[in-house]
Amino acid sequence: MQVKSKSGRVFKLPTPEENLAINAGIDADPDTYELNKAEFAQLKRLPGQRGRQKSPTKVQVSMRVSPEVVNYFKSKGTGWQTRMDEALKEYIAEHA
Asked: What is the pTM assigned to this prediction?
């Protein structure tokens, strides 16, 4: 069976036999288990993971920045755009 996402992407769903094999593999692995609905509802995105903002708190822009600036912020790991935003806010506060 196939399903189509809102974006038009087509996904092939596993057959009942494949589902049984998947569930048997989950049951056989002592390090994992299938989450129940309550556990699944408690999951949260980790910092740095992409997702839609609930309310638009930032404005998306396109700008040219020197490679040194981008490389510096990227070298510090995930969240580099947020750190760059914070640095710009600090500059504004100091030069207001």
From this structure: 0.44
For the chain, what is the domain count? 1
* Euclidean distance between CA atoms 1 and 17, whole angstroms: 13
Reading the block at residue 38, the tokens are 């309550």
Q: Domain for residue 18, yes or no?
A: yes
Cβ–Cβ under 8 Å, residues 82 and 73: no
Residue 1: inside a domain:
no
**pLDDT mean over 12-33:** 91
For residues 53-77, give the mean pLDDT: 87
CB atoms within 10 A of CB 59: 5
Give the Cα separation of 25 and 29 in Å (integer).
Answer: 6
Residue 2 pLDDT: 87
List strand residue ranges (DSSP E) for the chain, in order: 2-4, 10-12
